[in-house]
């Protein structure tokens, strides 16, 4: 893999702006162009709100929306989706012993506890949902099998709200799987109690015509840990916005992501980690592959270390593998530091294509070119998939990667 390496780390007490590590693009193999952009402001500075009117209708010129093809959002950004045909979801739950699931009204005290919407689509989803799904893992429970939430879209427009409430000292794996079609905007709240451990896996395996925008907001308690895994394969346009905040010291967050964009797909992942609490940790690793004309992947990682967050340790890394001509990647890690009393902070971004020497090495040992290319991609993703730590999910993802690789020329 020949990479455009834009790694960078920020020294304590400084703000990284306008360096190669702060933003880089590679417009596909064969172009020879790499464009460096400067971020405007950290998106963590946006004022959260439940009120849609607090967010102007995006024009595409805003930093948060400049990569998103607004005309393909099916009206989620400008309010026209509200009056469209109401859609339905088929939801199937797999609940281990002791885990409960409730359908609650908008006045339930758990709704909004993790945090408010930070853009207009998330605020629209909050304003328009009718009932929320609340899944609770009881205190001290250590689950031996995953909680499964299978959502199958059956067309139309759907606004949804999901709360995963993991009580103190519980340990759980929760898998939220999306299939089917339709236009969906959602807020997902992850409440990780003191001393609890949550692995949350969100899979977007939609039909090719689906549109999906979701804010996933996590609140991590004292000495608690979250492992977030976002996997995106399907859909016409998918925009996922994971956010992490800390309720007390000792919190840890690991954010992993895997995406595979085919011709014409727009897959966008925007992360925000707000370190406003001392002695917390975060680590981000996202990997993507692209193939086909107009395949487009966007990854933006915003990490803010506030003045009060002494003892923070954070790193974020995004890697992209461009498999064919005509694909485009926009990868922008942002790191802002307001205190010098930290353990460490850094970020890196790399985008590139196959390394001809690596392919030659494999072919020289009798491996056909097509199989050699697939081996490279499998190896690219395998280490990340293993980080999930759930055998069932590992096998499912590797099978999906194999089906995507069937289209690699």
Automatic annotation (TrEMBL):
Residues 1-13 have a biased composition (Polar residues). This is Fe-S cluster assembly protein SufD. Residues 154-380 form the SUF system FeS cluster assembly SufBD core domain. Belongs to the iron-sulfur cluster assembly SufBD family. It comes from Kitasatospora acidiphila. InterPro entries: Fe-S_cluster_assembly_SufBD, SUF_FeS_clus_asmbl_SufBD_core, SUF_FeS_clus_asmbl_SufBD_sf, SUF_FeS_clus_asmbl_SufD. Residues 1-36 are annotated as: Disordered. NCBIfam families: sufD. GO terms for biological process: iron-sulfur cluster assembly. It holds the Pfam family SUFBD_core.
């Amino acid at each position: 893999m020949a990479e455009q390496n834009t790694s960078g780390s920020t020294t304590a007490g400084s703000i990284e702006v306008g360096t190669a590590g702060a933003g880089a693009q590679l417009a596909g193999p064969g172009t020879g162009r790499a464009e460096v952009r400067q971020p405007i402001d950290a998106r963590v500075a946006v004022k959260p709100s439940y009120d849609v009117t607090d967010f102007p209708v995006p024009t595409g010129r805003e930093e948060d929306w400049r990569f998103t093809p607004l005309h393909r959002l099916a009206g989620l950004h400008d309010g026209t989706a509200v009056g469209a045909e109401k859609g339905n979801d088929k939801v199937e739950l797999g609940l281990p012993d002791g885990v409960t699931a409730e359908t609650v009204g908008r006045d339930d005290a758990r709704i909004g506890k993790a945090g408010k919407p930070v853009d207009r689509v998330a605020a629209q989803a909050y304003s328009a949902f009718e009932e929320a799904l609340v899944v609770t893992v009881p205190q001290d429970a250590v689950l031996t099998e995953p909680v499964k939430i299978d959502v199958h879209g059956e067309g139309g427009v759907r606004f949804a709200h999901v709360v995963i409430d993991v009580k103190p000292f519980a340990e759980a794996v929760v898998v939220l799987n999306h299939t089917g079609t339709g236009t969906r905007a959602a807020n997902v709240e992850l409440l990780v109690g003191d001393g609890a451990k949550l692995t949350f896996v969100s899979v977007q395996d939609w039909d090719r015509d689906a549109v999906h925008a979701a804010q996933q907001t996590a609140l991590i308690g004292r000495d608690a840990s979250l492992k977030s895994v976002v996997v995106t394969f399907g859909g016409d346009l998918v925009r996922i916005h994971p956010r992490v905040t800390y309720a007390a010291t000792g919190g840890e967050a690991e954010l992993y992501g895997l995406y595979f964009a085919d011709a014409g797909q727009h897959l966008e992942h925007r992360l925000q980690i707000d370190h406003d609490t001392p002695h917390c940790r975060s680590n981000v690793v996202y990997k993507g592959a692209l193939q086909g004309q107009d395949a487009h992947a966007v990854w933006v990682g915003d990490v803010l270390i506030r003045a009060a967050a002494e003892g923070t340790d954070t790193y974020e890394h995004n890697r992209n593998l461009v498999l064919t001509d005509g694909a485009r990647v926009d990868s922008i890690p942002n790191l802002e530091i307001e205190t010098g009393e930290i353990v460490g902070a850094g970020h890196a971004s790399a985008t590139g294509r196959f390394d001809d020497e690596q392919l030659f090495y494999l072919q020289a040992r009798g491996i056909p070119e097509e199989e050699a290319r697939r081996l490279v991609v499998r190896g690219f993703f395998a280490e990340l998939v293993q980080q999930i730590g759930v055998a069932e999910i590992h096998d499912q993802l590797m099978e999906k990667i194999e089906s995507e690789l069937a289209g690699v020329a």
